[in-house]
Specification:
It is a single chain. This protein has about 750 residues and is α/β, with parallel strands linked by helices. The protein folds into 3 domains: about 350 residues, Na+/H+ antiporter like fold (Up-down Bundle), CATH 1.20.1530.20; about 150 residues, HUPs (Rossmann fold, 3-Layer(aba) Sandwich); about 140 residues, Rossmann fold (3-Layer(aba) Sandwich). Strands 3-2-1-4-5-10-9-6-7-8 form a 10-stranded mixed beta sheet, sandwiched between helices. Helix 9 packs antiparallel against helix 11. The longest helix is centred in the first third of the chain and has 36 residues. It is elongated, with a radius of gyration of 30 Å.
Length: about 750
């Protein structure tokens, strides 16, 4: 690690020397703002900031600390002290030049708040409830009062405008009281404590802290911009903020969801959804500015709404996150470090004030959070862990201090003291939190939940983000709609219903009728959400009526990003035991996983009232496990029984073991794995082994023996000119008199 640190220092020195040489060679001394200097500044802040951020992460610290340290090293605290001529050459004090990089930093603040909002999980706050609220309130009130009191007794030399002491005290109180949800979430996630009970309370408390903090900052900004504190201005700020929040989380939420979906589904240009997200952030930031509060509140709320969008795919989230973390974060936090001059701490008086500020901030936050945990019914160990986690400030305090500095409420000395406090408390938090969490025992219920969520993280059904349902006007299509609703109901997975039948246009007129496929989807999804306390949201159902060939219509939808295509058509089998040509046409241009529904018997007559008796064959392959996961997901809400049988394969008709095995350990392990999976969801199963029998014969015989009315099979998608799942699937589809659901892998998987 020492060698790594030494290499990081060498790279930083080399980067600085190179930029100084380039700046001197360019002869940029004309007195005009220079694009060359701007690019040099950005490149240097990114290189040093990201490099030190990498180093910080390797030693167990948040990367933002490295980015702040980069600014301190490149600013007057070190670089400007050691080599002032070079530092002023790269970071000149000329207002026009500073305005260029400051503009990027201001955009960075909004993007950082957008990202913070996207990481804000309001569902988690609702879930943990009382504990998070009491910890957050006590953890804000106590340090806020401490910070406000400090502000009231600060010497006038630390205030740029002594007549605005009240506003400065409010800023200081806010800076000492608000935790950084990003820092807290990162440390909790790195320790694999995200899903622990206390981990969820810590993150939820930080979410509440951040949310309250940005509302407070918005109001304080309004007061500071007016220069006076009076009832009218205070009322305008509070009422304007409340009106904005009320609109955002009601009408605004639906508008954001619809805009993101519209962009994803209709725009063909690259990164269209990211463009819409950035525009939404800009509009909401401007809206908060117009009502007289700071733009950061609009960006933060926009992030919350974007993060809740039901079709925000992982790819979109990662691309946006990558842009912010790789460019804007190192630039903004680097500039914050540049604005801080730690050389002022050589003054014993200022150093003593800074140490006092750090102590008051830590004791106030720790004591308030600990008290809140006790009031929330937590144990001493849990309260200690919560208090340790809440002491991290990092990015939040730096943003608050930057706003205060830019408004002239805080002096540069006071800004440097707050940055020092933010760095000190943030660096102290990870080791304290790790030590506190390591001593927390894991109770039985928590252990069971964590094991289930670990399985879900790698599972198939749990990670479905969007479903595409291709149907005609048949009863089998309604059965497929019921299946799709059951699969999407628990997590509110958005479902698009695409009518591909020959009378698809006429089907559009039936959308509002009780017997429509859309109502079937919604009814099944509501049935699931009513039974499941952890159901997140209602299923969003969108209807599409094909305007071209069925295959082309599916291809147009597929590019919008769907994880599973559920197909329910009138005819499933064609000639010679193969799938019908219509299914072949519908699925030809969809490269992801498929779910082919072939309803029979009662499922074509009483779809929504059917209770399944499910049989699922497994062979140990990945795709057969996918079928088992799907069967368990259906069994959680609509099954009277679930039978799991182990066969030699689910693909090749007639294949069997050449000789019976003396030991059935492999088959027993396969069934044990599925049984563990089912137990995690409180689904009871019965099992059987048919290792030496032909799989198709064994499945057909088991259907009769266990009285199954639905067979769920995980099947391989075999490459070829037409859709083919192998002989076993074809045999079961053709011979069986019960419904079948074939769940396949994607092409090439």
């Amino acid at each position: 690690m020492n060698w790594l640190a030494f290499r990081s220092v060498l790279w930083a020195c080399a980067a600085v020397l190179l930029t100084v040489t380039l700046a001197e060679a360019a002869g940029e001394k004309s007195g005009k703002p220079s694009e060359f200097i701007l690019v040099v500044q950005i490149a240097l802040l990114i290189a040093v900031g990201r490099g030190l951020g990498e180093l910080m992460q390797r030693i167990g610290q948040p990367s933002v600390i490295g980015e702040l340290l980069a600014g301190l090293l490149l600013g007057p605290s070190l670089f400007g002290w050691v080599w002032p001529q070079a530092q002023s050459l790269i970071f000149p004090a000329m207002p026009e030049q500073k305005a260029l990089i400051d503009g990027i930093a201001q955009v960075g603040i909004l993007l950082l708040l957008l990202l913070t909002g996207m990481e804000t999980d309001l569902k988690l706050v609702r879930k943990v409830g009382r504990a998070a609220i009491t910890v957050s309130i006590a953890g804000i009130v106590v340090p806020f009062c401490c910070g406000f009191a400090v502000g009231q007794f600060l010497p006038e030399t630390l205030l740029p405008h002594p007549e605005q002491r009240l506003v400065a005290s409010l800023f200081l109180g806010t800076a000492l009281s608000i935790s950084s949800v990003k820092i807290v979430a990162v440390v909790v996630r790195e320790m694999n404590f995200t899903r622990r009970n206390v981990g969820q309370i810590i993150v939820a408390t930080a979410v509440i802290d951040d949310t309250i903090g940005w509302i407070i900052i918005a109001i304080i900004f309004s007061l500071a911009s007016r220069g006076t504190l009076d009832f009218v201005s205070l009322s305008q700020a509070i009422l304007g903020t409340l009106a904005f929040l009320a609109f955002s989380f009601t009408i605004g939420r639906r508008l954001v969801f619809q805009l993101i979906r519209w962009a994803n589904d209709n725009l063909v240009s690259s990164a269209a959804v990211i463009t819409v997200i950035l525009l939404l952030m800009s509009v909401m930031s401007l809206a908060t500015h117009l009502i007289g509060v700071h733009t950061v509140l609009g960006a933060f709320v926009a992030g919350v709404l974007v993060g809740e969008s039901p079709i925000l795919t992982k790819q979109i989230d990662e691309r946006l996150r990558g842009l912010i973390t790789s460019l804007f974060m190192p630039v903004f936090f680097g500039l914050a470090g540049l604005s801080a001059d730690l050389t002022v701490l050589k003054d014993p008086y200022l150093l003593l004030l800074t140490v006092t500020l750090v102590v008051i901030a830590s004791v106030g936050k720790f004591g308030g959070a600990f008290l809140g945990g006790a009031l929330g019914g937590l144990s001493k160990r849990e309260s200690f862990a919560l208090a340790s986690g809440m002491n991290a400030r990092g990015s939040t305090e730096v943003i608050i201090a930057t706003i205060g500095l830019s408004m002239g409420v805080l002096s540069e000395n006071m800004f440097s003291m707050i940055v020092t406090m933010a760095i000190a408390t943030t660096m102290a938090m990870p080791p304290m939190l790790r030590a506190a969490l390591a001593r927390l025992p894991l109770n039985k219920d928590e252990k069971a939940r964590l094991e289930r969520e670990e399985i879900e993280e790698k599972g198939f059904v749990a990670n479905l983000e969007r479903l595409l349902l291709a149907v005609d006007e048949s009863e089998n299509a309604k059965f497929a709609a019921h299946i799709a609703g059951l699969l999407g109901g628990a997590r509110g997975t958005p479902i698009t219903v695409l009518h591909v039948g020959s009378r698809a246009k006429n089907q559009e007129k039936k959308r509002e009728e009780d017997e429509s496929h859309e109502s079937t989807v919604k009814s099944a999804a509501k049935f699931v959400s009513d039974l499941d306390e952890e159901a997140t949201r209602k299923v969003d159902v969108t209807t599409r009526v094909r305007q071209k060939k069925a295959g082309d219509a599916v291809a147009d939808e597929a590019r919008k990003g769907f994880d599973l295509l559920v197909v329910g058509l009138n005819d499933t089998l064609g000639g010679k035991g193969k799938l019908d040509s219509k299914i072949d046409a519908v699925t030809a241009e969809f490269g992801g996983p498929l779910a082919i529904v072939a309803g029979k018997g009662i499922h074509l007559k009483q779809t929504e009232r059917s209770a399944f008796k499910i049989l699922v064959p497994v062979s140990g392959s990945g795709v057969s496990r996918r079928g088992a996961e799907t069967a368990i997901a259906l069994a959680r809400y609509s099954a009277t029984s679930l039978r799991v049988m182990c066969v030699s394969t689910t693909r090749d008709k007639g294949s069997r073991r050449s000789s019976p095995s003396i030991s059935l350990s492999r088959e027993e392990e396969i069934l044990k794995d599925i049984e563990v999976l089912a137990t995690r969801y409180n689904v009871e199963i019965t099992t059987s082994i048919h290792a030496s029998a032909a799989p198709d014969d064994a499945i057909l015989r088991e259907i009769k023996d266990c009285g199954a009315d639905l067979v769920v099979m995980g099947v391989d998608r075999i490459e070829g000119d037409s859709l083919d799942f192998g002989g076993v699937a074809a045999s079961v589809l053709k011979t069986s008199k019960v419904s079948t659901l074939l769940v396949s892998n994607g092409e090439g998987s």
